[in-house]
């Protein structure tokens, strides 16, 4: 029966998501579990909650296919045309749309060896070849990536900040990378964690949209606290988005997600609060890890990659027994690291308390 599947699917390793809270409670008989595994926001916007309540009465109808009202709000927010946006069921779907839209069967994709796993997984599902370039000091090596470009290169994915390392490439590095880049190579900047960045040299990639071969991915799953609603968007020149719209599935963003995202854009107080608590709690975790003598990678995002003395899966399982879900790094090949999302103060204290016991 295995032969019924396409050849490129038979040995594919699917994306491994963070373990759900209710599953851990059920399996281990725990009453209280905290999840610090999936880089979610610890806060939910009250305006989003109200938008969800108002939208429930219309769930018997198909959603508005073009995300009209959300499109108008984003257009105003960024000073761009409504046609510069393409919406998806999270950034994951947009990665698929980009590959299906632009990468021919004999063309290639380049990304980092340790980055968001979906770039490589989705490419393999679509039977497209992926070239991966090693990180340099846990960071995207843009010079090495540029050297890998050939006549077959079509799309380059750059996660900035990078998941799972939390590192970023700065404005100067991006400017140098894009200088002289072939016009037929599309560069995708995946900026899911953009709103958490606190660095003056982080690049403003919107200024490169006029190059016509740049796509920027953003999401409502992180700082906006809407991971469960699945909505993200791509920003690009209309010469690219008009083709992506032909590939995007109809009604791919549900009506509740659309209304919630529009409400979230108006709730600037929520974004400020989520950013403030994340930056403050990141410092708390840094200080606690420093006192414990534990190494970690400084992060521009809302998570920290932490070095552990034991195997990553062992630490993950041991922490589960105490009701703390972290992310093991086995699928990334980082067998002596765990990734920990920055949560609320009480959650972070609980993590440190348990982590100390396991040292």
Describe this structure in words.
By secondary structure, the chain is of the alpha/beta class. The chain has two domains: 2-44 and 269-358, Aspartate Aminotransferase, domain 1, CATH 3.90.1150; 46-266, Aspartate Aminotransferase, domain 2. The chain has 13 helices and 13 strands. The chain has helices at 7-10, 21-28, 46-55, 68-78, 90-102, 118-125, 142-147, 171-178, 238-247, 255-266, 268-292, 312-320, 345-358; strands spanning 34-35, 85-88, 108-112, 129-133, 153-159, 186-190, 214-219, 232-235, 296-297, 303-307, 324-325, 327-328, 337-341. The strands form three sheets. A seven-stranded mixed β-sheet has the order 2-8-7-6-5-3-4, with helices on both faces. A four-stranded antiparallel β-sheet has the order 9-10-13-12. Helix 4 (68-78) runs parallel beside helix 10. The longest helix has 25 residues, at 268-292. The relative contact order is 0.17. The model has no long low-confidence stretch (mean pLDDT 97).
Keywords:
359 residues, Aspartate Aminotransferase, domain 2, 2 domains, alpha/beta, Aspartate Aminotransferase, domain 1, seven-stranded mixed beta sheet
CATH-level-4 superfamily name of the largest domain: Type I PLP-dependent aspartate aminotransferase-like (Major domain)
Number of strands: 13
Q: Give the CA-based shape.
A: globular
- The span between the termini is 46 Å
Give the SSE string. HHEHHEHEHEHEHEEEHHHEEHEEEH
Mean pLDDT across the residues is 97
Number of domains: 2
Radius of gyration: 20 Å
CATH class group of the largest domain? Alpha Beta
Pathway: Amino-acid biosynthesis; L-histidine biosynthesis; L-histidine from 5-phospho-alpha-D-ribose 1-diphosphate: step 7/9
Family: Belongs to the class-II pyridoxal-phosphate-dependent aminotransferase family. Histidinol-phosphate aminotransferase subfamily.
Modified residues (N6-(pyridoxal phosphate)lysine): 222
Keywords: Amino-acid biosynthesis, Aminotransferase, Histidine biosynthesis, Pyridoxal phosphate, Transferase
């Amino acid at each position: 029966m295995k032969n019924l599947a396409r050849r490129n699917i038979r040995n594919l390793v699917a994306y491994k998501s963070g373990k759900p809270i209710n599953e851990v409670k059920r399996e281990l008989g725990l009453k209280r579990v905290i999840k610090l595994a999936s880089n979610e926001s610890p806060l939910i916007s009250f305006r989003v909650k109200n938008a969800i309540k108002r939208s429930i009465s219309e769930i018997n109808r198909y959603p508005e296919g073009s995300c009209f009202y959300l499109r108008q709000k984003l257009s105003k927010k960024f000073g761009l045309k409504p046609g510069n946006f393409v919406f998806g069921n999270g950034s994951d779907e947009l990665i698929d749309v980009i590959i299906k839209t632009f990468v021919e069967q004999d063309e290639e994709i380049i990304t980092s060896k340790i980055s968001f796993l979906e770039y490589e997984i989705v490419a393999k599902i679509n039977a497209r070849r992926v070239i991966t370039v090693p990180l340099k000091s846990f960071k995207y090596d843009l010079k090495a990536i540029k050297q890998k470009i050939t006549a077959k290169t079509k799309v380059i994915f750059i996660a900035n900040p990078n998941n799972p390392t939390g590192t970023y490439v700065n404005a100067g590095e991006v400017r140098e990378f894009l200088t002289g880049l072939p016009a037929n190579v599309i560069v995708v900047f995946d900026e899911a964690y953009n709103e958490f960045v606190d660095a003056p040299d982080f690049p403003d990639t919107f200024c490169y949209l006029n190059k016509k071969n740049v796509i920027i991915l953003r999401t409502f799953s992180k700082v906006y606290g809407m991971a469960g609603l699945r909505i993200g968007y791509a920003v690009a020149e209309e010469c690219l988005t008009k083709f992506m719209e032909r590939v995007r599935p109809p009604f791919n963003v549900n009506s509740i997600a659309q209304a919630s995202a529009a409400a979230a854009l108006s709730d600037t107080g929520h974004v400020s609060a989520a950013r403030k608590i994340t930056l403050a709690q990141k410092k708390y975790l840094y200080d606690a890890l420093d006192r414990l003598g534990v190494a970690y990678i400084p992060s521009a995002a809302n998570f920290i990659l932490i070095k552990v003395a034991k195997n990553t899966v062992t630490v993950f399982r041991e922490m589960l027994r105490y009701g703390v879900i972290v992310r093991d790094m086995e699928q990334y090949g980082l067998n002596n690291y765990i990734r920990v999302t920055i949560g609320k103060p009480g959650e972070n204290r609980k993590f440190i308390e348990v982590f100390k016991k396991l040292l």
